[in-house]
Design a protein that fits this description.
Number of strands: 9
Largest sheet: 4 strands, mixed
Helix content: 10-25%
Order of helices and strands: HEEHEEHHHEEEEE
Strand order of the largest sheet: 7-6-5-8
Structural class: alpha+beta
Radius of gyration: 18 Å
CATH topology: paralog of FGE (formylglycine-generating enzyme)
Strand content: 5-15%
Number of domains: 1
Number of helices: 5
CATH superfamily: paralog of FGE (formylglycine-generating enzyme)
Distance between the termini: 34 Å
């Protein structure tokens, strides 16, 4: 009987009801070890006849991935948080900070105009790292399998996410979180991931803790942004950017291995 119960527990889906643990840093959410289904579950006639746009085809095949446990920032890194990093390290501030000063009105908005190297430096300074593409997607799904968005299959709306607007990003956490307590996993700003991009990576990626190709020209970007159409808010949507690119719609959040808690 005990063995049967243990096996059942392993088969249960990821849930926001997992036992809470004290986070290693303020504002982090635990994503426990487990398996999830990664990529786009649904296919269309365009897929079958090979007419789906290339940029929308690299999120297949739908495949199982196992990840060790990790902590993720509940919200995107803000201007105010990045300011502390710049002041502590002397790191070059974003180009929209006039004379190197953070715009006070943007303090609660996600940081942007930072490239992959800037994001990596911030994460390392804070004792964390960038999420892998798989870690980002599992967290974004919020425990839902095969759904289009962090909240389910219903399309985006101005009540769910900030997207398709010329007004730029709003404050982090302005919309309801997903089932794991993570905010702005669709819209706001797109987010840097650790991995190099390879269009066919899913066809041969490892089943456990995939970290992307060993090399490449572009780094993975996930999540859609305030400037994007609804299609780019799909939780499976993969985008890619040169690691030295800085734009007004691209920021990041950090993760930390759960195994580090025991160190």
């Amino acid at each position: 009987m005990r063995l049967a119960c243990a096996m059942l527990a392993l088969l249960l889906p990821l849930s926001a009801e997992e036992p809470a643990k004290d986070p290693p840093a303020e504002g982090m959410v635990l994503i426990p070890a487990g398996e999830f289904m990664m990529g786009r579950a649904k296919t269309t006639r365009d897929d079958e006849v090979g007419m789906r746009p290339l940029i929308l085809r690299d999120d297949r095949p739908y495949h199982a991935v196992y990840l060790d446990g990790y902590w993720m920032d509940a919200k995107e890194v803000t201007h105010a948080e990045y300011k502390k990093f710049v002041e502590a390290t002397g790191h070059t501030p974003p180009r929209h900070w006039k004379d190197g000063a953070m715009p006070a009105q943007r303090a609660s908005q996600p940081i942007y105009n930072v490239d992959w190297h800037d994001a990596t430096a911030y994460c390392e300074w804070s004792g964390k790292r960038l999420p892998t593409e798989a870690e980002w997607e599992r967290a974004a799904r919020g425990g839902l399998e095969g759904k289009d968005y962090p909240w389910g299959d219903e399309g985006p709306s101005p009540q769910k996410a900030r997207y398709n607007t010329p007004l730029g990003p709003g404050p982090v956490g302005e919309f309801k979180p997903n089932g794991l307590g993570l905010y702005d996993m669709a819209g706001g700003v797109s987010e840097w991931c650790f991995d190099w991009f390879d269009r066919t990576y899913y066809e041969n990626s490892p089943a456990r803790n995939p970290r992307g190709p060993d090399e490449g020209l572009y780094r993975i970007v996930r999540g859609g942004a305030w400037s994007d159409s609804p299609k780019r808010l799909l939780v499976s949507f993969r985008n890619w950017v040169r690691p030295d690119q800085k734009t007004a719609n691209l920021g990041f959040r950090c993760v930390r291995d759960a195994s580090e808690d025991a160190k």
